Description:
Elements: E1 25-29, E2 35-39, E3 52-56, E4 60-65, E5 68-73, E6 78-85, E7 87-91, E8 94-98, E9 104-107, E10 113-116, E11 121-125, E12 129-133, E13 136-141, E14 145-150, E15 154-160, E16 164-169, E17 173-177, E18 185-187, E19 193-199, E20 203-208, E21 213-217, E22 223-228, E23 233-236, E24 242-246, E25 249-253, E26 259-262, E27 266-268, E28 271-274, E29 284-288, E30 291-295, E31 298-299, E32 311-316, E33 320-325, E34 338-339, E35 347-353, E36 356-361, E37 373-378, E38 381-385, E39 390-395, E40 406-415, E41 418-425, E42 428-433, E43 438-444, E44 447-450, E45 454-457, E46 462-464, E47 470-473
Antiparallel strand pairs: 1-2, 3-4, 4-5, 5-6, 7-8, 8-9, 9-10, 11-12, 12-13, 13-14, 15-16, 16-17, 17-18, 19-20, 20-21, 21-22, 23-24, 24-25, 25-26, 27-28, 28-29, 29-30, 31-32, 32-33, 34-35, 35-36, 37-38, 38-39, 39-40, 40-41, 41-42, 42-43, 44-45, 45-46, 46-47
Amino acid sequence: MKKIAAGLLAIMLLTGCSNNNNEQTLFVENSKEKYALVDLEGESKTKFIYDKYETVGNSGFIVVQDDKYGYILNDGSEAIKLGKYKKLESIANMLVGYDKDENITILNSEGEKLYQQSDDVKIELTGLPVIKDGKDYIVLYDTGEQLVNTNDKIVSAYTIDDNYTLVNYEKEASLYYHLTEEEPLSIKAGGDNQLMDHDDKKGYLLYNRDDHEVRALDTEGKVLFTTEQELDDLYYDSENNIIGVLNQTTYIFNNKGNIKETNSYYYNYRNYVVKNANTIYGPHTFVNDGKEIEVDGIQLDPLASQIREEIFPVYVRDEGYQYYGFDGKAAFKTVYESAEVFDSNGLAVVSKEEDKYYLINTDNKKISDEYQRIEYLGRNYYAGYTSGSRYEVFNSDGDVVIEDSFMGEGTVFKYNDIVYGIFNNSGTSYVYDMEDYEVLFHVEGDLEFNDAGYFVTVENDGYYTLDGEEIYKR
């Protein structure tokens, strides 16, 4: 078993470190589907008594036993006794307790009471709790710290990633970045604006669900545009386009607030496709650098959406698949039996005949060998199936990187600056360091990675650290 440097094993397992000590803990499940808290050595911090749990920030867990709610800290100590509240929920890294009459209590991450609803104390649960205590309006954030205390009426408060908080007043708003000591940005926008997304280079996106106002701000908080559009979601995509979504329709915004509507492939505001909703083979509207072109005789993928390259697969009637550009023309003459969208590596899976799939680049150059099928594993790795169930692992250059072949599902991911691969062979899972393609460890069963920083079998009967040390096995 290969060991990873100890410094890279400072993982935040599910909860991270307790406020009371530096012990790292996680929940494990026994054969009776009950949960207990253990440390990395597998030492129990609680008994197997809980039916379910919910992580609250880096401090503790809401736990449920026989429909009774409680709260324990990372070291297993009981902070809120089971049944004290009818129900407990998390809000940011705090807790909301409900009594039998649905009255609200706000508690910090240690389970300590901060505010309780009464005739004099009003509590609004927006993205963050907003408290009206007499004449004072208070916003709590993170683990229960007070962010704002003012006599000015606060409408709502929202947060993203615990780092950014928008506090809304009636005629303006304040935007806080908690990783600096700087004063909050002053936003000329009042009302119940939700902070939807943030990008370090582009800025911020706000949405008011009451009047459907969309606002884009630059990194200094200046309003770039305000427009109206009913939306379910609003975000920056991977290419930093401003994207809104309502049901099955995608809206692309430019920096002036102008909107383009698409229900098919899009690259940016000036390059996209509008699929004919009534006729499968068109004519469809292609928009190339802002110019509209009608294209018929082709069928578009009903699930088409954002693409990373400016060419995409279409089905040409009575012929097969070809790659088209937004100019409505074939990018190259080759016709395929099947063709997929180009991925983040600039590669696409194609085939000219059944069971002979390979990768091409955007120049139509063949990159890999032919396989019965190809699946993307993550990062720049692929599974090339040499039979119906067995595959080999190759990279975006088409080179096979591991001599062994595997079965079942595989995955490649990055965590703590290390790229891992999980592959299964004859019922045993192998975890690889994908830098030198050496096995870190192997265990029986199908292994998965938990985003909190550990490995667990799909049956939840085995838990392992990043270097394969057994935490718990039933």
